[in-house]
Amino acid sequence: MSVTLLTFGCRLNAHESDAMEHLARQGQTQDGKTIIVNTCTVTAEAERQARQTIRRVHRENPTARIIVTGCASERAADAWAALPGVSRVIPNTEKTRPSTWGLPEKAGHAPPPSRHIRALLQVQQGCDNDCTFCVIPAGRGHSTSMPPEEIIPKARALTEAGHCELVLTGVDIASWQRKDMGLGQLCRHLLDEVPEITRLRLSSIDPMILTPDTGDRALWDLIADEPRFMPHLHLSLQAGSDLILKRMKRRHSTSDVAGLMAQVRRLRPDTGFGADVIAGFPTETETLFQETHNFLEEQAIPFLHVFPYSERPGTPAARMPAMPKAIRQERAARLRALGQTMRDQFLGRFVGQEKTVLMESPTTGHTPEFAAFTLSETQSSHRGRLERIRITGVQDGMLTAEIP
Predict the structure, then answer these.
(1) Distance of alpha carbon 244 from alpha carbon 247, whole angstroms
(2) Packing angle between helix 217-225 and helix 183-193, nearest 10 degrees?
(3) Phi, psi of 121, rounded to the nearest 5 degrees
(4) Quick one: 318 exposed, middle or buried, by C-beta within 10 A (0-12, 13-18, 19+)?
(5) 8 in Cβ contact with 50 (< 8 Å)
(6) H/E/C letters for each residue in 361-394?
(7) Are 6 and 37 in contact (CB under 8 A)?
(8) Structure letter (DSSP) for residue 100
(9) pLDDT tens for residues 355-378?
């Protein structure tokens, strides 16, 4: 049986699909074709695209077995099972077991290398927050933290496979906790136990882990003193209006975020900040939207990931007075335009500097601050190499660079 993976959604889904693909390669036979669709439920659009894909692959492969898994199918298994060609819906907790797809289980498999140059390393699963707009806890369950004795061997295997940069990922990695260890202590432990890790980066984090007064002290120490800890933080911000944050049932305030960003910038001035932001949340008047716009502009966050609000049935936000979809789209476009301006301003500060970067293709990659760059047309390097470059300019939202 041959197995094809089709993946939607977040980095965690991508990471899990990498593992599934690795296991499938070891167990494939010539007996038929199986297509596994790994779904996402964050937005209605993500679900629509997955349903559309299932219908298309069934038309193109009418004899193939289609297996559906992921967060969307976790919430409505019967509806996904009724789609044409779907033979089985697998829970998230079972999707990395080949026996659920019809392949034999094999013990003793080494962790797979990542297909990404910056390798993803899962440390956590699930979420205990109850944000009013979110259905992820229904798809991923309660927060669970993987123990260091499982994480360290996986990190070591990734470095042995040639990955020099690891990205810690999960649903809510800020909630990682084992006995008396928090996320910062885990990062410190990883860097001490696996010295081959040249760069360690975090995926999206809840801002509360870095509030100046109560945040993770070990994480603050890494930001201040550890050169292998990348100066890039992507915050699960969602809004820049305190009233909207309250209605979202987020735990942070705008002053919390402003304080942590100011402190990080004092310690590492060129830190690249990213943020997830929802535009057009229910009850968001033009005045409240402008509060978010102004906050993002004041904080000069260069890497914005903007979503127009998407109703998720069964959530408290879905029962709140909704904004027209056209207004959500228009506000999202305004925030994206602001983001482009702030990104270009941020990138401009690096012109003339030299950076050690990780090449993600022969000509492109990201700086430690997560600024994308491209080499001049006459130069190239090698995928996966740490290269020293000189920044020469900014073009089309990217840095231009040359190898000195």
Answers:
(1) 5
(2) 50
(3) -130, 110
(4) middle
(5) yes
(6) CCCEEECCCCCEEEECCCCCCCCCCEEEEEEEEE
(7) yes
(8) G
(9) 999 999 999 999 999 999 999 988
Separation of alpha carbons 38 and 257, rounded Å: 33
122 backbone dihedrals φ, ψ, rounded to 5°: -75, 130
Given the structure tokens 């089709």, which residue do they identify? Answer: 6
Name the CA radius of gyration of the chain, rounded.
Answer: 22
Is the distance from CB of 6 to CB of 13 less than 8 angstroms?
no
Helix (H) or strand (E) holding 14: helix 11-27
Q: Does 319 score more than 80 pLDDT?
A: yes
Residue 278 CA neighbour count, 13 Å, CB half: 27
Q: pLDDT over 70 for what percent of the chain?
A: 96
Distance between CA atoms of residues 342 and 332, nearest Å: 15
DSSP one-letter code for 209: G
Residue 91 has which token pair? 């829970």
* Other Cβ atoms within 10 Å of 143 Cβ, number: 20
Nearest-angstrom CA–CA distance, 346 and 163: 28
Paired residues of 304 in beta bridges: 275
User: How far is C-alpha 74 from the chain's CA centre?
Assistant: 20
Assess contact for 61 and 35: CB atoms under 8 A. yes
Query: Residue 240's closest CA among 299, 183, 198, 182?
Result: 299
The two tokens of residue 7 are 């993946």
Mean per-residue pLDDT, 386-401: 96
